Structure formats: C-alpha cells, structure tokens
C-alpha cells in the first residue's frame, strides 16, 4: 500500500465508517474501516484513553513520530485524532492480518523455513531503519508483523505502545496492560543497566522461534515463571532433534539473537547479512504460500475469537483446579529445592517416563518438567539420560568453572528489588527496606564487597553454630543425597553460564516437551477472550459466571469489581481506588508485597546455586587446594555470606509482612508492567504466609548446604 504524502487524511470520526473488528491488543481494538472521503479501506486502532489514564500529549507526540516514519516495512499511521474518550489511529489496512493470526488460523505448527526467512528479513529491514533512527521498537513479535494481500510485510505497533509507557505515568499506565513477557530480553527484565536496541534483537530471535513453532517459547507458562525461566534458563533455541526440518543457518541465526549478553548480539544491520536470509523469497511468494485460501481477515478473527470463547467454556469447570495446580507448580518452580525423600522417590519415578511424554497431558508435562529442572534427584533414581542432563559436566581444568563462577556472580542481581524495580513497580521504600546495605552501584563493587566482607572462618564459625541450631532437623536432608557430594545441579535455577553444554539438553527437552500448539494454555496470544467494550458489546463467557470476571489471561483474571465505575471493562483498575481488585480467592493475598517476596525467593535459589557451584569448584580444584590452601581460601572468599543474607532476607520479609499486615487490606489482583507491549500481570493466589514459610524452609536448606560446603572444605584440607 503506497503512501501519498500530500494526502491529508481526515481527522474526524464522522469521515470514517467502522466495519468489523480485525484485531484486539491489550490496549486497543482494531477495526477495518472506510475512509469515506477517499473511499479507501483503512484500519483504525481505537485506544480508550480513559482506561489508559494516560498522558494525552505524550500519546499525541508518539503518534506524530509514528506518522513521520517512512519505510516500506514499517507501518505508518496516516493520522490520529481523539473521538470522545478514545484515540483513533488511522493506518493502512493490512488485509492478511498479523503473522500470529495467520498461524492460529492455518499454520498452528508454524511456517516453513523460506516463509520464515522472508517474513524475518522484511521485519529485520524495518528494525534496521528503526534502530538507525535511534528508536527501539520494543514490541517485536508475530502479532505485530502484518501482511498485506499482496504479501508485503510491515512491522506494526511502533510508537503507540512505547509511548504508553515512556511518557505516561507508569503508576497509572501499569494498570492498563496485561500480557506476558515471552519476548522480553533478560536485560529488560533485570533493568540493571537499562537496555538498548539489542533488546529488539532478542525479541526478534524469540519471534523467529514463534514463527517456527506457532508459539513463543514458554508461552504456556504464567508470566512470573516466564521471567524466571528467561533469567535462569539457557536461552531458548531451535532444537537439534525436534527442529530437524530447519537448516543449520536458521539455527545459527536464532542462536546469535538469543544470547543473554546484549553486547554479544549482532546489530540488526549485521544480522541482515546473515546467510540465513539468503533463503528469503519475494513477497509474491509469501502471498501465494500463506495467504491463499484464507478467509477475509474479519471473518478469521471472528472464528478465532469464537474458538477461544469455546475453549474457555470447556475449560471453565477445570479452571479453578488447574489454577491451583499451576500455582503449586509455580511455587515449586521458585522454591526449587525438595529434600523430602519420599517426594523425591515419587518424582524420580515419574521422571522415568520422561522420554515418552511428548503426547502426555500438558499439565503433567509441566509438572514433570519442573521436577526435572528444579529438584535434586538421587543419582541412582534417575535414568542415565536424565542424570546426564542434570549434572553440569566438569570442565577440564576447573578454571572455566572459576570463570563461570565469576561471571555468574557478575550476573547475579545482588539487589533483586532494585533490579526488578522497573518491571515490578517496586517502590523506593521497598528497595530500601529490603536491602538497606545494598547500596551497590555496580556489580564489580558487589563482588568486591563480597570479597571483603567474607571470610572463611566466619563461614565456618557460623556453620558450627548452625550445626547446633539445626541438629534437631538433621533428618531433613537425606544423607545419601549429599554424601560424597552427589549434588545434581538443577536446570533453570542455574544461570546459563554455569552450565555445561550437556545441561542445555535438559532445557531443550523442556521445550521439546511443550505441546506445540496449545491455545488453551497459551498465555501469550492477544486473542484470549476479554469482555467487549461497551461500544461493541458481545456477551462474554466470563460475564455470565463469577459475575465479575471480565478478563482472563490464562489463569489470570480481572473482575468487574476491580474496575472503576466508568467501566473500563477489559483491563483497568481504578488506581485511586486503593488499587482494589475483587478477590477471586479467599486468600489474603498481598499483591503489593508478593513480587518482592517472590523475588527474594528467587534470589535465594540463585544463592543456593552459587554454593553448589562452589562446592563443585572446590571438588574439582582439590589438587590446587592441597597445593595452596591459601589460594583456595581466597577463591572461597567469593562465597556470598549466604547465612547472613538469608537472615537479612528473612528479617526483611518479616518487616514487609508486618508492614503489609498494618496496611488496609487490599485484594488479590495486581498488574505488573514490564516492557512496552509485553505486559505482565500477576494475580496472586499465594498468601504471604505460604511464601514466608517457603523462605524459611529454604533458609534451613541453605544452612544444610553450608554445612556440606564446610565439610567439603575441611575434607580437602585434610
Ligand atoms: N493495520 C492493520 N491491519 C490489519 N490488522 C491489524 C492492523 N493493525 C493491527 N491489526 C491486527 O490487530 C491486532 C491487534 O493490534 P494491536 O496493535 O492493538 O495489538 P498487539 O500489538 O497485539 O497488542 P498490544 O496492544 O499489546 O501491543 C494485531 O495483532 C493485528 O492482528
């Protein structure tokens, strides 16, 4: 569709005739429309400004920027204007719709490689342009890659979603958006040092996987878990076995994008030169291959929506239960450690069926995957393959491990709340409360601090004390699991740089075992049913039951009681109404505190992993230790004072809990913003108490580990 620069599109709603709905994002509904004076088909994105509570001038500025864009692969706005409480953004109508919709309608298993290469090349050209002009798109995903009837490809949603976050009041705008962070780069999640255009390259890599499989990696998991998995797991990629149909160059291209260190990712310009894009074809080819035979966009959208609604009805009875199970999974995913022998036995028994699970119930798979990744198994209980997947292979010399350890420490978010502040709206006071001494200005400083603060003797002394304190709990940790240092390092809790290549297999299997197309469990798609806006009211399945559930994103929901009386029916809380959201469970959930608690638990895990790595390192370098006890001691100074940290964390959690208890009770829903266009909503069904208990349990486990560490050190000294 060509732009006629002189053409001034009318800026009044009366000049447009709205037809059917052709898309729905979390922030807007998109309609096919006729621009009456020009007798031209357009698409109009209608954003409800009241719901967004956003800075109108900011949005206007962004839309202006959007209309200055001039590149054949970037969707440019014709114009925009306000109509009542809405902002209308008039755009070219892309009759093929988004790649996501096309996949959902006709290619649930993803596209063939030449199609992917063509789509991605065009998208990448758009990114090169955007980056050259100093912008970050921040919302690269299949849902934003649009195709016209002739096969031309345009990257959409540049500007609008970004402005919603950049210029608006985050505190308010956060209540407007929900979604999942599947496409979000790790550095964006961490927000430690900010992020740049390389974040788009990560999202581009995720989009490549999405186009290849029909869904983004981790899309079946709840947002918080996606965050943890993205941060802790090895990056997703194309699998050697499952993705046999794809070429080596495709796999390499994806791997180049999905590197956790943004500096190591190529620029868009460089990536465009990758030999994978030599497979790209013409846009006529695209039109022929993926658009032929498709029904008109509006119809397709209607069918998809009806399908989603049906699924919701079918799953409704099961939903609460699934929610519960899923929550349990999630808690275990965070806690990650299970020292209960009986539990371990039964879990290990389940894992034996590991290889034949590909057709199994997705919930079961999810649970088993958690086990695979999060639980320590006695080696003898595991089939050899699983054991191999779980054990980090020792390096040749141990120096690699030291390097790993250092880089692992470097990537350790010492100030978890600070690190996730951008993501989770952690208030300054929360950060201060949690980490009064963590005025860490850089990771190097953190490490130095760790080096100076720690001493081996202190660890030993404390360990001795703990021995006494915990003697009554000696049965807590099965001896045979830890004797002879038979630690099996779990999957996702380990930073990826701590893993041997073998470890990656476990993650690959995790992805492998994800059902390829699971609309009913896919939290990432924009098509999940939500209640219609009042202007276009279709009765939603959710309307008729629970009275109040007006939106569901996977297992997350918002109820009508959450909403301001003016009727933001899909996604807004009234921010001034105490953030109140009708509780959908009877749990006394503490949404404001939960992210912090969860974050603490996550850190706890990471610390544990560091200790395990240290143990391994000590084991592997015992020769060196014997030669030079002093050197070993120095290396061991790298150990974070886990027990101290544990106590600190525990004290902070108690503080938080007290603070929470002192404040007026709020209800259980919370929307957590992350990244423009990739929004995260967490509805808590976990009580503070249960998290607190979890933390205490983990603390005990840490103490046990430290004892083992000391035993190990002592043994090597002897
Ligand atoms: N110009 C267009 N022509 C045809 N379809 C469009 C057009 N713009 C958007 N769509 C369709 O509408 C859907 C929703 O668009 P929108 O930009 O609101 O959503 P999104 O990017 O998925 O969500 P979010 O608001 O979270 O960024 C798109 O996924 C696409 O299928």
Description:
This protein has a domain at 13-165 and 179-309: Transferase(Phosphotransferase), domain 1 (Orthogonal Bundle). The chain is globular and about 85 Å long. The model is unreliable at 160-179, 327-591, 623-642 and 665-686 (pLDDT under 50). With 718 residues, it is an alpha+beta fold. A hairpin with a 2-residue loop joins β11 and β12. α2 (56-68) packs antiparallel against α5 (160-166). The strands form four sheets. The chain has a five-stranded antiparallel β-sheet with strand order 1-2-3-5-4. The structure holds adenosine-5'-triphosphate.
Mean pLDDT: 61
Count helical runs.
30
Helix content range? 40-55%
**Text of the CATH class of the domain at 13-165 and 179-309:** Mainly Alpha
Shape: globular
Looking at the structure, the CATH topology of the domain at 13-165 and 179-309 is Transferase(Phosphotransferase), domain 1
**Bound ligands, each once:** adenosine-5'-triphosphate
Number of strands: 12
**CATH-assigned homologous superfamily of the domain at 13-165 and 179-309:** Transferase(Phosphotransferase) domain 1
The secondary structure category is alpha+beta
Largest sheet: 5 strands, antiparallel
- By CATH, the architecture of the domain at 13-165 and 179-309 is named Orthogonal Bundle
Note the beta-strand portion. 5-15%
Distance between the termini: 77 Å
């Amino acid at each position: 569709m060509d732009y006629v620069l002189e053409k001034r599109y009318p800026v009044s709603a009366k000049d447009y005739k709205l037809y059917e709905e052709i898309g729905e994002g979390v922030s807007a509904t998109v309609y096919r429309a006729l621009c009456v004076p020009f007798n031209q088909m357009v698409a109009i994105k209608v954003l409800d400004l009241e719901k967004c509570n956003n800075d109108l001038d900011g949005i206007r500025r962004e839309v202006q920027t959007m209309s200055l864009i001039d590149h054949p692969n970037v969707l440019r706005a014709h114009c925009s204007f306000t109509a009542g409480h809405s902002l209308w953004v008039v755009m070219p109508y892309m009759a093929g719709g988004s790649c996501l919709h096309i996949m959902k309608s006709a290619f649930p298993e993803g596209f063939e490689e030449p199609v992917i290469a063509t789509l991605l090349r065009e998208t990448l050209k758009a990114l090169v342009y955007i980056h050259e002009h100093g912008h970050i798109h921040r919302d690269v995903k299949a849902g934003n890659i649009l195709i016209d009837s002739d096969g031309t490809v345009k990257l959409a949603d540049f500007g609008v979603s970004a402005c919603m976050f950049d210029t608006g009041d985050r505190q308010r705008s956060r209540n407007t958006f929900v979604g999942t962070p599947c496409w979000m780069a790790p550095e964006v999640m961490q927000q430690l040092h900010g992020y740049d255009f390389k974040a788009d390259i990560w999202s581009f890599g995720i989009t490549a996987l999405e186009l290849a499989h029909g869904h983004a990696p981790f899309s079946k998991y709840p947002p918080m878990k996606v965050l943890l998995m993205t941060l802790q797991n090895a990056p997703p990629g194309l699998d050697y076995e499952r993705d046999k149909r794809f070429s080596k160059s495709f796999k390499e291209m994806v791997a180049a994008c999905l590197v956790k260190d943004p500096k190591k990712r190529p620029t868009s310009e460089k990536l465009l030169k990758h030999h994978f894009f030599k497979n790209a074809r013409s846009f006529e080819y695209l039109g022929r291959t993926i658009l032929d035979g498709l029904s008109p966009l509006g119809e397709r959208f209607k069918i998809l929506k009806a399908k989603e609604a049906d699924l919701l009805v079918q799953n409704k009875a099961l939903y609460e239960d699934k929610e519960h199970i899923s929550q349990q999974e999630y808690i275990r995913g965070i806690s990650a450690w299970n020292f209960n022998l009986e539990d371990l036995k039964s879990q290990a028994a389940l894992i034996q069926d590991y290889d034949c699970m590909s057709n199994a119930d997705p919930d079961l798979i999810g649970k088993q995957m958690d086990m695979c990744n999060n639980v320590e198994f006695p080696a003898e209980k595991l089939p050899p393959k699983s054991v191999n997947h779980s054990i980090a292979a020792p390096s040749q010399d141990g120096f690699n491990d030291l390097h790993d350890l250092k880089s692992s420490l470097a990537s350790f978010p010492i100030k978890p709340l600070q690190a996730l502040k951008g993501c989770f709206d952690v208030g300054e006071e929360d950060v201060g409360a949690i980490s009064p001494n963590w005025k860490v200005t850089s990771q190097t400083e953190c490490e130095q601090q760790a080096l100076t603060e720690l001493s081996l003797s202190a660890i030993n002394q404390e360990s001795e004390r703990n021995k006494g304190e915990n003697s009554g709990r000696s049965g807590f940790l099965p001896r045979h699991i830890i004797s002879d240092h038979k630690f099996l390092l779990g999957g996702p809790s380990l930073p990826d740089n701590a893993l041997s290549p073998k470890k990656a297999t476990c993650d690959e299997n995790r992805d492998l075992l994800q059902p390829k197309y699971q609309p009913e469990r896919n939290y990432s798609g924009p098509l999940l049913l939500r209640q219609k806006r009042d202007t276009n009211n279709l009765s939603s399945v959710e309307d008729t039951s629970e009275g109040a559930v007006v939106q569901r994103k996977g297992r997350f929901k918002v109820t009508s009681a959450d909403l301001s009386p003016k009727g933001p029916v899909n996604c807004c809380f009234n921010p001034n109404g105490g953030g109140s959201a009708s509780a959908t469970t009877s749990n006394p959930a503490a949404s404001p505190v939960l992210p912090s608690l969860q974050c603490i638990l996550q850190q706890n895990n990471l610390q544990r992993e560091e200790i395990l790595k240290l143990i391994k390192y000590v084991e592997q370098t015992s020769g060196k230790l014997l030669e030079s006890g002093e050197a070993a001691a120095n290396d061991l100074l790298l150990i974070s004072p886990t027990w101290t940290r544990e106590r600190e964390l525990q004290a902070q959690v108690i503080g938080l809990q007290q603070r929470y208890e002192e404040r007026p009770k709020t209800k259980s829903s919370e929307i957590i913003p992350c990244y423009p266009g990739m929004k995260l909503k967490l509805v808590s069904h976990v009580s503070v108490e249960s998290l607190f208990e979890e933390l205490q349990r983990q603390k005990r486990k840490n103490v046990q580990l430290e004892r083992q560490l000391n035993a190990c050190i002592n043994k090597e000294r002897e």
